[in-house]
Fold DUF1439 domain-containing protein.
Amino acid sequence: MKHYLFSCGFFITLLLFLVQSSVAFAYTIELSKDEVQTAVAEYFPVKHISPFVMLTAHDPKVSLDPKNDRIGLEFSVLANVPGILTGEGRGLIDGDLEYRHKTGEFYLRDPKIKSLELYDMAPEIVATVKLALQQLMKQSLPVILVYKLQGNDLKQNMARRVLSSVDVRDGKLLLELSVPVLSLID
């Protein structure tokens, strides 16, 4: 009976230990707005050419909004509707971060157009340009590398497994990575 109670106690203790330490290691990367701005600016201008509209997005400005933990991009837009008119304006989109753990890289994804203002253009033309802009951002954002974990940093190498959260706080982008205990075994 004592052996049975000891075995049960041991397994309960082991189970509690495993549950409480399901995350053995967490590492937070802190990126300033300027660091994100520098990374994003390298990929602009971006262009979209179709039979209906030629579009160029340039001069991006990064915004980090703590309300939604997404990266915002405000940029200048040059739109040319062949044979009709050319217009300029400003656009605002935001996107999530996608973490690719095999390479340790963070990319923008899931762009959403928040606003598009084209000066001196009719609403139906703005609607056509907005569709082209959405297509342009879906193609361009997934290739914008925001950050790459450093291969020579032991903490970053250990934390390469799982992106557990993305937060925006005090004008900074906080990326929390963690390594579940069980993933250390494989």
